[in-house]
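Structure tokens please, single chain.
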Amino acid sequence: QWATHRKRILDRTQFVGVGPAGALANARFQSVALTRDQVLPSFLGGLLSILNKIFIRTEGVAAGRFRRRRPFDGLCSGVGVLLWLVGVPASAQTSEAAEEKEEARKPSPGSVLVGRAPSAPRTAVTFDVLGSHAFDGEVKDTSGSNMSSTSLYARIALLVPAGERLFLSFPIDAAVTFYEFSGDPRLLPGGGKPWDQVRTFSIGTQARYRFDHHWAVIAGANIASAGVRGASFEDTLSGGGTLGVAYSFSRELTLGVIVTAQLKLAGGLFVLPLPIIDWALPFDEGRWRLVAGALRVGPGRAAGVSIVYAPSESLAFTAGIAFLGLGREFRLASSSSVTNGVGRDSAYPVILGMEWRPVRQLAFAAYGGVSIFRAVTVLDGAGNTLNERDVKPSPVVGGRISLAL
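Here you go.
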């Protein structure tokens, strides 16, 4: 009986492939009518068939390649297929909409689109820890003064889907940068070291609304604090926001623009428009991408432009330039010789880096490069520049650990 009913099931059910976590790829099902006394033998026969007919992972299916796994290796996938079969009507058909939705959720190697919501439509929490060090660079127009800096950055964000089209994020981040000055950088009117430790905090909300499969709007707002150790907390506060729009022509190309604005501590508004580009270059099976916007490999709170090469979904190499300007302004200490003074540290690191993702929820990144066009500035309370010094190019290194739960 088992052999008879097993053959009946196999004749009426066609398995093309099984993807990760038991998801079916390109499966087609036909109606299977069983009488009451045939349920148990059919169930057992189907179970044996599934455990002996587990195929390769989804990407192998797409390429038209198959190989037989050992039954134990495919046990989890087999159980997933079995539960799927039991949970759907016998006459179920895979709809075009469902196929399109699954296709949209597949990760693209190297894709780092700004504001793109995670593929899983459920609440999640992300953790990011970054560290970087800029080696000694000579401060120009001084008597041999040098400066270096070491930064530590941490971020936690709650990701919440609000329906099919709206995705919300609630990030909180903090950073501390330790500065070392040798000699007098000649930034303060009375001379001396302008600052030694800068602390920044930020809390905000972000939203991404998808009108359809092409158009999406990105918006956000934040309240931030940035000040030297010893600065009055009330004087370190500022607010800002982000607004952008993106259009996806296909899975290979997304273009858009995003504008970030932040109130200056010394008055006025800092506005930074940036392009959004996520383009799979038309060669080497899309392993190369041109990306502009937020950087996955690079300093924290930085945007930039990069070329990403992803030989696999777990490994990517990056070459790019980061823009460090927005958010690099901070209130000087209350005891500073400049009343209500403001400091600024801007730079453009050119970096080479890599990201390794052993599992989907965990990623490690490291980079190295050269910081160019770096400048340190002191402004008075009205926003007038008192002194500004360029810093010669110097090496930079850094890394990041990211975890999603």
